[in-house]
Amino acid sequence: MTQPRPRGRPRAFHDKTDQNTVRALDRAMGLLTALSETKGLTLSELAALSNQSPATVYRVLITLQGHDIVELEEEAQRWHVGPGAFRIGSGFLRRTNVAERSRGAMQALMRATGETANLGVEDRDEVLFLTQVETHETIRAFFSPGTRGPMHCSGIGKALLAFLPAARVAAILKTQGLPGFTPRSITSETGLHADLDRTRARGYAIDDQERAEGMRCIAAPI
Description:
Elements (H helix, E strand, L loop, with lengths): L22 H14 L6 H8 L3 H12 L4 E4 L4 E4 L1 H14 L1 H16 L3 E7 L2 E8 L14 E2 L5 H7 L4 H11 L12 H14 L2 E4 L7 E4 L3
Antiparallel strand pairs: 1-2, 3-4, 4-5, 6-7
Helix pairs in contact: 1-3, 2-3
């Protein structure tokens, strides 16, 4: 029996070849991603980073600027993510509602501990930070909404991994690997699984300077 095609998907939904992608849009998304990971880039920097001609990059930027997705800082001639991108991204938060619902609990957690509180989810085999309540202390960590990070060396990532099905964990490790960032990073599957066992037993994960030296994190799944 033929399975019905899900609504909203064409017949070629599973065909990921070039004929079913819009290359100009793909380039635009690549530039937007690059801008989101920096404090702004010049046209020349974006062209070099994307391996495209300045003329091509400029046309893409002007198109995105027309929708407020990017904006130009005239004095420094640097391009930045614009308010239109924020409005679009806010649609995700409205759909999930989790960031808004967690705000009160995160503020209470920050006041009780004196430390920054973060909320993240697993997305495309990485940790995606959704929102943060910063501590008022002088020394603090900052992860802007939309920041991504590896799962195996962050408190939130390990808290999520510990309670995912084994097959899902194996698939994530196969895709992402176990790169090291500090001498304390867990870079073997045996070591990671032992850490996840401890996380499940106590109910929370610990990142002991595994992503950045001098920074520790405690995280629990909710």
